[in-house]
Amino acid sequence: MTLLEQSIQHITQPDQEIKSAALKRLANQARPRGSLGRLEPAAARLASICGRLDVKLDRKTIVTCAGDHGVVEEGVSLFPSEVTAQMVYNFVQGGASINVLAAHAGARVRVADLGVSHDFDPGLDILHKKIRKGTANMATGPAMTREEAAASVEAGIGIANQLADSPGLDLLGTGDMGIGNTTASSAIIAVYSGLPLKELVGPGTGLDEQGLDLKARVIKRALDLNRPDPADPMGVLARVGGLEIGGLAGLVIGAAARQIPVVCDGLISTAGALIACELCPAAGQYIFAGHRSRETGHEYMLRHLGLTPLLDLEMRLGEGTGAALAMHILDACTRILADIKTFEEVGIENAHEG
Ligand SMILES: O=C(O)c1ccc[n+]([C@@H]2O[C@H](COP(=O)([O-])O)[C@@H](O)[C@H]2O)c1
Ligand SMILES: Cc1cc2nc[nH]c2cc1C
């Protein structure tokens, strides 16, 4: 059995008894019922995943998966592919947006190279999981082979397992870096939503109207040529996806198999989560949508997954920045559930009863 099949077999339903107990405690806390809004179901879901009411999220890691995209040669990004590797060095040096926001949230950052078009020194402090140097141009053929797609997913599973084993993992955040990857992510949501590309494509790093038109046409060409079948998620990943997107799918499956909650970042991380859920729908119960990205297709992905984002700050950066910020909210959820006293505990009559 493959690592992917094994991991999918280990994904179980989170503890529904704990969920009921959590919802009961939240409903009995000394405050108007439902007054903490969406924090309440989030807190209950966290408890059910972790199997306890007093959830501890001490060990947080954000894994930023990096990969390059052959489709960049069509002019779909404002930036050249070289920026992917340059940003990997920036992450390692600690000077990027994700380093700052992860530190603020008490999370470690690990950068994983799934497919950057650059040879990193083996001594560089990243997770060396390169499958190949960038995908092929999906507008002229499949982005990668099915074997490479499966290898990228299994690399992500391996990373989740590695982190869960040492140093231990209570909450996993996902993030991405890859010039051109909003094109691949938009292609994936086009396959699953069936919506016209004009509605789905966004500016990525900052395309203007003319650039958006070109991007939609390039994706249309890739879809017409590769004919990805939504019933075959690994095929979709191989034909129009990306190596880091496969890694992101694997992270979700790996964490879910270890009963670890995952908080996703924006468009690209959610594209990975979408592939994970198509491979194994039960994985969706372990996912929190960190935020709603400004990038147009993200809303459709969230709808497809049935997820409501924790935050909407009009961000469109990637790297895991939205996941890092949402970690503050998930931390708050654990405190809300465990520490707010019930009517009974503080001796106030509960007007909701009797
Ligand atoms: O996370 C998002 O929602 C998001 C939205 C727009 C852009 N990005 C980032 O921008 C890069 C891809 O943009 P592009 O235009 O090259 O496809 C990639 O490194 C992503 O992390 C990320
Ligand atoms: C500079 C830069 C930083 C990024 N971080 C995520 N995507 C990015 C794209 C660019 C271009």
Describe the structure.
The protein is an alpha/beta fold and 354 residues long. It has a single domain (60-334), classed as Rossmann fold. It has 15 helices and 6 strands. The chain has helices spanning 3-9, 16-28, 39-50, 82-93, 97-105, 146-165, 181-193, 197-200, 209-226, 233-240, 243-257, 267-279, 297-305, 321-339, 343-346; strands at residues 60-67, 107-115, 127-128, 171-177, 262-264, 287-289. Helix 2 (16-28) runs antiparallel to helix 3 (39-50), helix 5 (97-105) packs parallel to helix 14 (321-339) and helix 6 (146-165) packs across helix 10. The longest helix has 20 residues, at 146-165. The termini are far apart. The mean pLDDT is 98. Residues 77, 79, 176-183, 204-205, 265-268, 293, 295, 298, 316-319 line the site of nicotinate mononucleotide (NCN).
